[in-house]
Amino acid sequence: MRHERWAALAQRNEIRVAYTELRQQSEEQAKQFTVARQAALEQKQKVEEEYAALWQKYETQKNEYNALNHKHHSLKSTLEQRTSELQGVQKFLTTADTFSGSEVVNTLRKLNEEVQQITTFMAEWAVENFVLETPPASIEQNRTTESLGMRFIQLLGTKKHNDNPTLMEIAFRAYLIYELYLVASPWGIGQEEQSHNEYIDAIYQRIRETEGQAISGNWRALTRSYTLPACISDPEVAHTFDTTIASGFSDILLAAGCTAPKSEITSALWSKFGEKIHHFVSLAGQINKIIGVGVISEDFAVLVVWPDTVFDATSMEDSYDNGDRVQGTEEREEVVLCATDFGLMQRMMVGAGAGQTGKPSELIVIKPKVALASVVDILEG
Fold it and tell me: What end-to-end distance do the CA atoms of the chain give, in Å?
């Protein structure tokens, strides 16, 4: 009995000790919670104070921004007005080019190469697909005879082309060069524009003589940008050139002795080469736009040499020179039969502007190539 009582007392003491420890722990945790809560309240108050300060700063900056934004819009409106007033003048104050000189040169060389390739193939195709034996008794004046000259057209009828179609290839090539020149060089495209081209060019030359390159180059680009697009992009104008070229090729074949009717020849040519002809017309129009609108800092001019021009080795090149000219023909005056390749000239007006008249400076970048009248002897030899 006594033993059980002592055991109960011992257990009660253990419970009291445990209770005391738990109570102390609870009080300690309560103190920690109170401290943490106080710290949290202080942090909250600090954050609220910082937020209030930031909000006040935001409101102040917002008001400043609104004032600056109003001022910005006012200045922008003034700037737009001034820009609009100066926009017309600004175009004449820069010489920035859209295309480089090398791009002009490469594009023209590409056209020359493609013209040579297609006309060589065309001559070979013609002798394989047509009978060439009966030159016409008489030749009427037409666009083809005006381009190549009556002498060349008559010469075609005196030769046998089946074994050697080179002379006929030269005729195709020259006629295509002359027709594409009408697309590649003028202010406005088409024979009916010739008087307009001469009038505009005369004005432009006076501007070049008295104004700096920035003004004259931009005047030319601005003027041509308004005279060219309707011509280049107009399908009817392009088709007129396409069909005119095909018709001219037919005239050449008839002069060379083709026995087929012209309508049949033209139809066959158009079926075989129509797309290529249109490509050449488009490429010539592109060259016109590049040198007329895309280059401001300098002037380029496409060159061709016309029939019966006296040959000048300093400004042109003989496509069929076999080297004999050095031995005996260089002192003899020779005459051009026709053109075979476009040339390119770079033109500058040195010292123009500020009331001063400039001095012309010209550089032939690509010599135009020709076939001389003596080419017939070379081909027969």
Answer: 155
